[in-house]
From TrEMBL:
Alphabetical list of Gene3D superfamilies matching this protein: Ribosomal protein S10 domain
Keyword Ribosomal protein: yes
Originating organism: Canis lupus familiaris
Protein family (similarity comment): Belongs to the universal ribosomal protein uS10 family.
Occurrences of domain Small ribosomal subunit protein uS10 (ranges): 17-89
Protein's name in the database: Small ribosomal subunit protein uS10 domain-containing protein
Single Gene Ontology BP annotation: translation
PANTHER family: 30S RIBOSOMAL PROTEIN S10 FAMILY MEMBER
UniProt superkingdom: Eukaryota
Pfam families reported for this sequence: Ribosomal_S10
Gene Ontology cellular component terms for the protein in this record: ribonucleoprotein complex; ribosome
UniProt KW keywords: Ribonucleoprotein, Ribosomal protein
Listed GO MF terms: RNA binding; structural constituent of ribosome
Length: 93
């Protein structure tokens, strides 16, 4: 029964959170803008970027996407600046 449930959610919509962190604000903002522009070109539902408090000169931005994971893979394949670290988290609805 558990296998049937997971098969049904593969094509479904997931909540994907992209966390970007960097010490360099300019490169962080550039990557944020590129990700959001790529998502809006594909008419995807985007929330963000949400600015998190700066700790020890490390800047953080959160971007939420509510779309199928296959489409999000296409968006996240853009080139990311070397100074920016990206973390992608997928949560089931």
């Amino acid at each position: 029964r558990h296998r049937e449930d997971t098969r049904g959610t593969r094509g479904g919509i997931h909540q994907i959170r992209i966390t970007l962190t960097s010490c360099n604000v300019k490169s962080l903002e550039k990557v944020c803008a590129d990700l959001i522009r790529a998502a809006k070109e594909k008419n995807l539902k985007v929330k963000g970027p949400m600015q998190m408090p700066t700790k020890m000169r490390i800047h953080k931005r959160l971007i939420d996407l509510h779309n199928p994971s296959e489409i999000v893979k296409q968006i996240t394949s853009i080139s990311i600046e070397p100074a920016v670290e990206a973390e992608v988290t997928i949560a089931d609805p």
